[in-house]
Amino acid sequence: MLFQSLFLTLLVNYFPLSASSPRLPTRHLCLNLLTDLLQNPVSLVQLDSGKLYVAERDGKIQLVSIGDRSAPEVALDLSDKVLSKGDHLGILAMTLHPRFRFNGFIYIMYSTDTDDPEFHHKQLISRFTLASSNTSEIDKYSESIILEIYQSAPTGGQIWFGLEDHVLYAAVGDGSRARRRRFDRGSHNGKILRINVDVDPKIDGNVPYKIPADNPFAHQPSTLLPEVYAYGLQNPWRCSEEQRETKKGITQTRTICVDVGAKFSDFNIIQKGGMFGWIDEAFSPCHDLDSCRNASKLKSEFKLPICRYSGIAVGGVFYQSWNVYLFADYMRGSLHYLRATHSGNAWLRGSVEILNNDTCGANQRTLTHQTVLNLQQTSDKDLYILTVSSDNIDEEPNGHLYKIALPKPASKV
Fold first, then answer.
1. Is there a contact between 122 and 112 (Cβ–Cβ < 8 Å)?
2. How far apart are CA 190 and CA 300, in angstroms?
3. Does the pLDDT value for residue 369 go beyond 60?
4. Quick one: pLDDT at residue 263?
5. How much is the pLDDT for 358?
6. Least confident piece of the model among 6-20, 115-129, 329-343
7. Count of alpha carbons within 13 Å of 108, Cβ hemisphere only?
8. Number of neighbours of residue 296 by Cβ within 10 angstroms
9. Using CA atoms, how far apart are residues 347 and 257, in angstroms rounded to an integer?
10. Where are the extended beta strands (E) located within 39-104?
11. Rounded-to-integer distance, Cα 107 and Cα 110, Å
12. How far apart are CA 15 and CA 264, in angstroms?
């Protein structure tokens, strides 16, 4: 989680934006305020075309009705279970099962206490179920723990179901107390995990999940965790997946995870069995992105980021209207985008200006005095931004939910 410790880190280790790489033109967007009655909102999912679940770090899932400016309704309260007093803690992410409309399953990643003195807390991935088929309330007592990870900060924090394979992915931080665990494929820390939560007790037994047969280490020695899909990540705070069609008509899926470090944020296209985060390690044959791109005889598992951003990036979503990857800067409260070149071998960066004029219509806002905690896209392809007020972070409520929109053409204003 990105909170007070990151402010201190940036004050000491802040790097300006690089001026050496080519820039793309500035684009423009509008922000429509949906509600400012949230508290530390960190994640959202679409319940139906008019309703959203919004997860608050302190342990509540709020039901927000789009177009209704009244206070959100509490759909689930886990505040008595969630450990949220401290950096990198609380509810971190949530996602709906691909067959949510039929089974009512919602998955939540959150922090809770542990008695193990070696670790600060546990990071749980749990499944909850709707209280009934005709309600938005989530049954607190339906919790089924899928995975427990013993953890210290940074925790990372993202879960999602693959668009193509429909299995559950989890982005987990390395925990600074045990940094080397991210390169240890026998540890959950510093990994992208991939598990199949659709189990049949009659066939699979009494297990919370099973291992996809095509996981890279599914058939390796028992010292390697078969859940591991990719490794070497420090603080994979947000990941986003998209499907696109190639010129030959083949549908391809790609996932970008933003790995947030103390000085840089690396944008990685996650690859099966890939090792990330190695550039800054002593064993690396090269130590900056340009020289590593030109290095020869790199090990096949060594994967390079597509972009290294000098700051704390909050990623991010694929914005199909522009065919770009959109992300935010946590410290500056600004938006930026990445776009691949025609060859696909390089990604260029551009800035986004938030407008607040007649081209945006009524109820528009900017990100002035706002800290961006997340950008997310729903199944309807709508884009949303979750923020807190940076000038009154301890006040309640301090959180905002915005919907992203394109400016109206000048001729229609």
1. yes
2. 19
3. yes
4. 81
5. 81
6. 6-20
7. 30
8. 5
9. 15
10. 41-48, 51-56, 60-65, 73-77, 91-96
11. 10
12. 8
